[in-house]
Design goal:
Layout (H helix, E strand, L loop, with lengths): L20 H17 L12 H31 L4 H31 L2 H9 L5 H8 L8 H13 L1 H12 L4 E5 L2 E5 L1 H5 L7 H17 L1 H22 L5 H8 L4 H13 L1 H14 L25 H15 L1 H12 L28
Antiparallel strand pairs: 1-2
Helix pairs in contact: 1-2, 2-3, 3-6, 6-7, 7-10, 14-15
Amino acid sequence: MSEYKLDKWDLSELAKDPKSPAFQKQIRDLEALAKKFEKIKLKLEPKMSSKKFMDILHEVEEISEKMSKIGGYASLSYSADTQSDEATSLMTRMSKLGSEISNKILFFDLWWKIQVDDKNAKRLIKDSGELAEYLSHKRLFAKYALSEPEEKIINTLDVTGISALVKLYDKMTSAYEYKMNVGGKTKKMTREEITNYIRSVNPKIRETAYKTILTKYTENKGVIGEIYQNIVLNWKDEGIEIRGYKSPISMRNIGNNIDDKTIESLLTVCRRNSPVFQKFFIQKAKMLKMKKLCRYDLYAPAAANIKEKNYQYDKSVRLVFDSLRRFSPKLEELAKKVFNEKHVDSSIRVGKRDGAFCRTLTPKITTY
């Protein structure tokens, strides 16, 4: 039985070395497919046969899969090392390529949303098999779609606009290093390392960890605040002013294929039952033998006398597998697939993007 070790993820399934001829061929093949697809524009007709429509959809799938692999390689490489000039440059190049490819096949997306009448849309959706839900969801965006030239402008500007701001935030905050006194010694840590102390059994250590993290962000609040403000304004300007959504949350709801009424019902129930959370915090304070919880105590262990344990990485992974197996052997099988294919980036290092996330590039590739 092989041992699980802290390591970076293996991206070789997505693409080879960006400097290699093989990578350049991936790009050329993708561009050729997109160029060929453009010729379909004059052949689009709402009354086309279901077979012809499905053939077109499969071409869109192929282009999307190839772009996802190249773009995914760039994105995951950047997440692994946000301070790398090479990874940053590749990320920018692939974002631009993605925008160009999207603009080439955009006409089909708009045609399906706007130009196909309901009768033919229902007929084509009925015969589309597993793509039916995807096609139905696309139609919800019809009233918020813009003209093709306008959509192309937004796609192009997003690369150097909203996407660039998010990348700047990641690059800046992933470089943060935190100094904290632990056991009489000053330790230099990444965000991931210091976050462990937020769950300490010692309330003073929890508070110090929180304040150390927040102090670092406070030092850069001007820049971070400006980034956040511009992202919010971009969301509002494009979504509300240009596309005509009713509210910022409506944009997110439609994107998630949920209607506003459902979400409002959810929020209403949550507000009505807010005392449940208050009771929970009161009970947790009692368990921790505290009069009242502070912000620093939210992630404290639920028992005041619990003994902290440290586990080696291999042991930790196997404990997770064991827990999943007891709930569902299928879940354990899927989790092992992610680890065994080295689709987990587990090593701790400066420059790596903070926080855990899951990236599904295509249905054929195991999640990273």
